[in-house]
């Protein structure tokens, strides 16, 4: 955005992509480029495959019957449109912040703040809630494998009848320490955990194939098309997480190639495993057996294949799966917060990168401590519902952002382009809006309250401290908002 020297940019000022990319090389504010396509793809798989597949398949089968298989495919298709848009923007704007940064470059500062503030809540509450689930699954594993369990007083939050959720605090602080240590180390650990949980799912699939039968597939769709779409709406949220890959844009060694591969590749890998798992589950257990269990995959193996010890293996798989989800989502939370701090919308001192580790250590530790307190003590049953609406809101803005940037910056290099734009991004918007419209009114009310609080903080702090209004922010004595808007050169040189 270019404006007169005596006029400050307004709340809808748009950041030039060139200035966004240049900030990634600033001393003390640049993140280490250390991850490749395999590690980024593992991040996507790590974020997507959590307890969802171990639990949600039972809920879906109860609604759609054997046609839950089609529901998994439909949910994947619904996510695919947004994944394509994320891939284009991540490869074109390899800067931390994900949907926040993309919105800043397309829709303006105030909209970027809204989505950034929304994502802070979404990711933070997600990590806290997932950490609580990790503690519950750890107890389930200890009970099924060794016949022991932690006492409720230190294994549950006050909301659930305990005093202090120690396992949840432990996993958040352990992951925080790992993220402080470095993105390379974090990516390696996540890769191992992804390997373990895919192995557990592969174990289930193989056993199901060996004991497979077709009797449970009739009738295939007892509730018709409505049942398939209703189950897809439930299953959709088992796919959420691929967007976390884009938060690692700035740390990718070759973002123009690796990010599209990782975002789309992780969604494809998870879809294949989800569909095969659904087919296998129906092949050895009836929909009634699946929907009647809190651990439907373990129930399928025990009742359909006669493997009574399967619960221990699947419980272990769930613990590992949730651990990797905590890792990737907390990583994404720190990078979004980091981007907002570097832009001045939040205190810039938190955007300082540790010289030894190459990570925003101070910021990561602060967020880790805050989230551990949430996980230990705060009731999450209601506010966790905000995660769904926050994610869908981000999907809407990212799809719109692709269309706008194609019109406002047609000359900008795009290593990956969404095919048939603006048709596919528009379909992505429609899918997201449809799912948002199905959310309860109470969720919308909480969402609006959170955004109103965020707007108050923006006008009291963010607007005045934004780099858009800070002379010399780019180190050349020129306000970052008044820079040249000539075509950008992609990372690695001109194409």
TrEMBL record:
Pfam families in the cross-refs: AA_permease_2
GO CC entries: membrane
Keywords assigned: Membrane, Transmembrane, Transmembrane helix
Mode of membrane association: Multi-pass membrane protein
Domain of life: Bacteria
GO MF: amino acid transmembrane transporter activity
The protein's name: Amino acid transporter
């Amino acid at each position: 955005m270019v404006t007169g020297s005596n006029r400050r940019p307004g709340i809808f000022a748009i950041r030039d992509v060139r200035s966004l990319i240049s900030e990634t090389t600033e001393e003390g504010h640049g993140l280490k480029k250390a991850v490749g396509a395999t590690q980024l793809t593992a991040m996507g798989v790590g974020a997507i495959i959590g307890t969802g597949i171990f639990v949600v398949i039972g809920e879906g089968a109860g609604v759609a019957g054997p046609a839950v298989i089609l529901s998994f495919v439909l949910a994947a298709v619904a996510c695919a449109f947004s994944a394509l848009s994320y891939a284009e923007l991540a490869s074109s704007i390899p800067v931390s912040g994900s949907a926040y940064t993309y919105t800043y470059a397309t829709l303006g500062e105030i909209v970027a703040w809204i989505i950034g503030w929304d994502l802070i809540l979404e990711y933070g509450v997600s990590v806290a809630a997932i950490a609580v689930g990790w503690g519950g699954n750890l107890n389930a594993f200890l009970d099924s494998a060794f016949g022991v369990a932690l006492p409720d007083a230190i294994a549950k939050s006050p909301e659930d009848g305990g005093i202090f959720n120690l396992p949840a605090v432990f996993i958040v602080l352990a992951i925080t320490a790992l993220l402080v240590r470095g993105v390379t180390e974090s990516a390696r650990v996540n890769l191992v955990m992804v390997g373990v949980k895919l192995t557990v799912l592969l174990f289930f699939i193989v056993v199901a194939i060996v004991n497979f039968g077709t009797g449970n597939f009739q009738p295939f769709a007892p509730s018709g098309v409505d049942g398939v779409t209703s189950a897809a709406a439930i299953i959709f949220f088992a796919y959420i997480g691929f967007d976390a890959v884009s938060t690692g844009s700035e740390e990718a060694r070759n973002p123009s190639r690796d990010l599209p591969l990782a975002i789309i590749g992780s969604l494809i890998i998870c879809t294949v495993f989800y569909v095969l798992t659904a087919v296998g589950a129906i092949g050895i257990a009836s929909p009634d057996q699946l929907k009647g269990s809190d651990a439907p995959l373990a129930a399928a193996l025990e009742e359909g294949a006669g493997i009574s010890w399967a619960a221990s293996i699947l419980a272990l798989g769930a613990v590992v799966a949730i651990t990797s989800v905590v890792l990737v989502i907390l990583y994404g939370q720190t990078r979004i917060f980091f981007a907002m701090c570097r832009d001045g919308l939040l205190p810039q001192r938190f955007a300082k990168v540790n010289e030894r580790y190459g990570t925003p250590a101070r910021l990561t530790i602060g967020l880790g401590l805050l989230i551990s307190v949430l996980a230990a003590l705060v009731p999450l049953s209601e506010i966790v519902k905000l995660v769904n609406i926050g994610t869908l809101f981000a999907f809407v803005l990212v799809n719109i952002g692709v269309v706008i940037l194609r019109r406002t910056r047609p000359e900008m290099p795009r290593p990956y382009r969404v095919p048939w734009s603006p048709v596919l991004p528009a379909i992505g918007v429609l899918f997201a809006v449809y799912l948002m419209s199905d959310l309860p009114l109470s969720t919308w009310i909480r969402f609006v309250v959170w955004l109103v609080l965020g707007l108050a903080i923006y006008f009291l702090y963010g607007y005045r401290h934004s780099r858009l209004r800070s002379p010399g922010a780019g180190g050349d004595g020129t306000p970052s908002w008044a820079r040249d808007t000539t075509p950008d050169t992609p990372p690695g040189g001109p194409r």
